[in-house]
Amino acid sequence: MLTTACQRSTGGPLEPVPSAGIEAGQDRSAILRDGDIIARVTARWSSTGENSLRINYRNAGQVRRTVAIDGLKMTHSTGEAALRTAVDATGVDLADTRTDNDRPRVLFALENGTGTPSPLELPPGVSRDVDAELTSFSNDGAIQTDDRIIATIPMGDRAAAVIFVARKP
Q1: Could you report the per-residue pLDDT of 20-69, keeping only the tens digit for each?
Q2: What is the pTM of this model?
Q3: Rounded CA separation 135/43 (Å)
Q4: What residues pair up with 26 in beta bridges, in sequence order?
């Protein structure tokens, strides 16, 4: 006998919809620019609350930039998926024999009660990988294939709204 808590979640990748200032990469990524900051965003959806974003931020300029992660969220007709955790996973490698690169730097963890996420610092010419997990959208409804989801991605001086379409795996 299976209970709903034991059932495998449904979900899959999110595919970006190109629009003004947002390109779609061949790897189902959205590519955004805000001045010297370039972000490549990939996302996944789940009908059971395992929504996630992976963002590679790159500072192509000559001046240190900061990205405030606190505006990161996803929105669907059933509700909003808020930020649960965000980590700077740059350089994390669990496959090698070293142990000094096994833990990402926590930017935000809802479970720890941290109110304000740590800013992401981007020195000139540096890239950082942010892994973010978000809450479920709602207890009253589920995402279906081909639904539209809007991800709000913090950039340097603004946040960008990226429309994604839910796809099957």
Answers
A1: 999 999 999 999 999 999 999 999 998 776 799 999 999 999 999 999 98
A2: 0.86
A3: 14
A4: none
